[in-house]
Structures are given as C-alpha cells and as structure tokens.
Amino acid sequence: MPDSTTQHPTTSAAGQGGGGRFDALVIGAGFSGLYQLHCLRDRLGLSVRVLEAAEGVGGTWYWNRYPGARCDSESHSYCYSFSKELLEEWEWSERYPGQAEILRYLNHVADRFDLRRDIRFGARVVSAEWDETAELWRVVTQSGERYAARFLITAVGCLSAANIPDIPGLEDFRGRWYHTGQWPHEGVDFTGKRVGMIGTGSTGIQAAPVIAEAAAHLTVFQRTANYSIPARNAPLTPEFKRYVREHHAEIRRVMHATPNGHPFYIEDRSVFDVTPEERRAIYEVAWQRGGLQFRATFRDLLVDKAANDTAAEFIRGKIREVVKNPATAAVLSDIDHPFAAKRPPIDTNYFETFNRDNVTLVNLRATPIECITPRGIRTRDGTEYALDAIVFATGFDAMTGPLLRMDIRGRDGLPLREAWRAGPQTYLGLQAAGFPNLFTITGPGSPSVLCNMPVPIEQHVEWITDCIAHLRSRGLTRIEATPEAVDRWVAHANDAANASLLPTVPHSWYLGANVPGKPRVFMPYAGGMARYRAICAEVAARGYEGFTLGG
Ligand code: NA7
Question: Is the CB of 509 under 6 A from ligand 1?
Fold first, then answer.
C-alpha cells in the first residue's frame, strides 16, 4: 500500500535536503542505485531517496581513479540496456571504457533521467533498523540525518570497502600512501618519485604500467603471482561503432544467454576434443585477440583441472617469453592456482613493464614484508626499499564488507553481523531471513562479481521493482525470505560453486580469504547468470515462493 504519511521534502537540482520519510530508500548512487531510483520513482511512482556517501554519482567509478583504472568488460556491453534511446545516443570511444568515460556516462544517465533531485550526496549511512510496529526501516546517516521508509534497498556495490592491510609501521611512514579505491580526485604526480606498489590483482596489474611510466622507480611487491591476458585495448573503429548501433538487440540477447553476461558465447568444445597443436593455435588466436574471451575458448576450463592446466601452461609460457630477465619471469609465472579461478585480470603491457630499467619485482613469498619504516618497506631478509610513496592495490573487503560496515538490524534487533557471523546467508542474494523489506542488489549469493556487472544489476533492479509492484497491487506491506528458502539457496549455491574450480583457491577474495578473520564462504553464485535469471523469474511466477508476504 502507498504510505499515506509519506513526506516529500523540498527538492533542489543539486540534491536533496536531509531526513524524511519515503516509500523507499536506496543506499548508493552507482550503476545499481541510479537504475533502482529510476524504476521505483518513474515506473511505480514511489517517493524515493537515494543516500550516497560521495559527492557525486558513480559508485566504484567515483572512487577508483587510480592510474590505469579501466573496466575489463567491453564498452558496448558495460552499460544499461533498459532504454533504447540511451543505448542509441551514447557512443563509447575505446574497446574497454576508462574510469573517466564511465563516470561521464553515469553522470549523463543521472541528468538524462533527472535523477539528481532525489539523491542526497555526502550522506553515509551508518545504521538501519527495522521497526516492526511501524513496518518501516529507520536509517541514520553519519551526520545524524534520520530517514524512514517501508523498503530499504542496498546498492552499495561488491567492491567498495577498501582493504588496507594492517602492516606495522604505516603510521610512521614519512612519504605519502594511497589505496587505489580511495584515490585523490586531483590525481597523484609520481614524476621523479620512488613508488612501492603492494598487490598484483586486477588493479595492480592495471596500475603498474602507468605508474612505471611516470615514476623514477617502481617496486612491485607481489605475494601471489597472477595470470593476465592482454586487453588489446584500442579506440573503437567506425565499423565497430556502426555494428554496435545496428545490433543492440542481438548483443543483449547474447549477454542474457551466457553465464557471465558478456557479449560472447563460451565455445561448446572440450580442451580434449582437439589436438595439442590445435589447442595451442586456439589459445594463440585468443591471446592475440585479447580480453576475457580467452576464458571462453573451451567449455571445461573452469570445471576440469587437467583442462585448465593447458591454459595455465600456455599463459606461463607467454610470461616467460615476454619477460626478459629469467629470474623475474620465474617469479611472475610461478602461479599457484588454476587460471580464472581467481578473478582473471586483463592488462596493457603488464608483463612488459618488468623489462623496464626502473621497475623491480619483490617476491613476498620468499621474503614477506616485515614492516613499513619511516623511509619505505622492509622485508624479512632485512632489505629496506626506500620509497617516496606506497600504493596499496590490496583490494576490498568484498561483497559483505560494504553491507556489514553499516549497522543493519532486522526483526527483534537482530544485527546482520550476527546473522552472518558464519558467512553470508541469503535467498537469491536478494534477501536475508529476519530482515523484512530489505533488498540487497548484487548481494552475496547472487552472480554479481562473476558477471559483467550491468547484467545482474539490471536483472536484480527489475526483479525488486516487480516484487514491490506485486506487493502494492495486493495491498501487502512486507516480504521476507523464509529461513528454509535461505538454507536451500545456500546449499544450491555451494553445490554450484563446488562443481567448478573456483572454491579451490585458498587465497581468493571470492572466499573472503583476503580479509583476516572473515569467514571462508564462497560468496558469489557460480551457477551462471542465465540460470539465475530463470530461477528468479520462476520464484516470482509462483507468487514469490520462498518468501513470506504479509500486511
Ligand atoms: P584483489 O584482486 O583482491 O588483489 C589484491 C592484491 O593485493 C593481491 O595481489 C593480494 O595478494 C595483494 N595483497 C593483499 N593484502 C596484501 C598484503 N598484506 N601483503 C601483500 N599483498 C597483499 O584486488 P584488486 O583491487 O586488484 O581487484 C579487485 C577487483 O576489482 C577485481 O577483481 C575487479 O573485479 C575489480 P594475494 O593474492 O591475496 O596473495
């Protein structure tokens, strides 16, 4: 039912005044939050307030301004598809969109759909508590503003809580230090500086070549060696731009049919259907073509270790070919996990960077970091690396971090931190039992980070919108996942993960292993986006099976 007491505080083009009561509150104004606002306000006619900690829209792309920041999804697939006009009027310039271009795109979306007037910027949510009597979520921001709403939707992203490792001595470091996910907006000039970078995940692999070009010297501190495929980024040709303009519907069809939401199919052949020579030729073509499509060359790369070994060995061979110093090549190619079982990076000149005179690789497996000193970083063998700046490319408290950093309390005051003490437990990644009317876009248990993100985001947002419309059309005020449905989903998600090689990597952030003390639970749903979409549609068609509806 529409809430008759809902207020509509005064609006302004620059954002909203503080506090108030709404039909729905959305936390975050990135890809998810912007579209959720559009759907609830413009399709359902709800009063909605988006609470955003930053001073602008963009989410991930607002914060991650580190050198080389770029999306690993191809630009023609890394955008919304809900509006034909939006698809037709926006043209990407490069094969992979850079951070600045994506931020321009999201600002364009905010303006085009007149979204800013319902977003409160500079509003970091610190707590949200379910008021059972009033059937309202009561939300408080850092500055003490109070909000209330029947529905609360978190659009906080999966990779927004920075992970800064607790290395002794950081507070005494005399230089400057940065986390890639909290990069200064004015940029950082590394000219003439000695820079140390910790971390060789997707971020470090993007940043190292760009930092090395500016800095006097770059020292890369590698704990776990990583695979990377050349991105082969380039400006889009007029022909490709025309192809995209003329094939929007077809491109979306492919994206919706594939497990990862990318605009290409996974080849339906086994590694062992072809001869070793044919296989090598296939890998070579994929290597030259570049990008995540390398992973799609065979259907069994992510389920059969022996199949995966052939891709892994091919890439190790490439690293040894590219990197001239054999000792450095050995450290870079000494990779201890199956290819793509951790998030597979793609790069521009990453391995080539180690051929530069001003770049040094430190193998932390041989000599771990002991401490940070006032002058730099000291490793356990006593070597001190003198540095002017340290870059932490050390990733995020992924998926649960952004949710658990807020104090969310459900029925009977149950803290989400308690409910998820042994790891996140959700139904469809969208709801937790005991937290009525709380929806988590790309929450743990949804396909999220295993996909090209706009695909699950649009699906979740539309499903949530349809669900709220369903409740309102029947005069219902609440929906809550049942504990049984949560248990069944957790078991199904575990089975899906265990059918792949993904949970076999002990130090993966998919498992929460990068954050000390975090429960080791495989968090994203590995059953594939297309299958997930079908399951969600069936749940809705059966009257929201697995949820209790009331009011
Ligand atoms: P990732 O993929 O979590 O990578 C973080 C890197 O930092 C990784 O190499 C870690 O090594 C390393 N790390 C983390 N803590 C430490 C400490 N204490 N000492 C040394 N090295 C450390 O984060 P990214 O930002 O690169 O990527 C996150 C996602 O953003 C990416 O997958 C895309 O989806 C976009 P480890 O492997 O744990 O040994």
Answer: yes
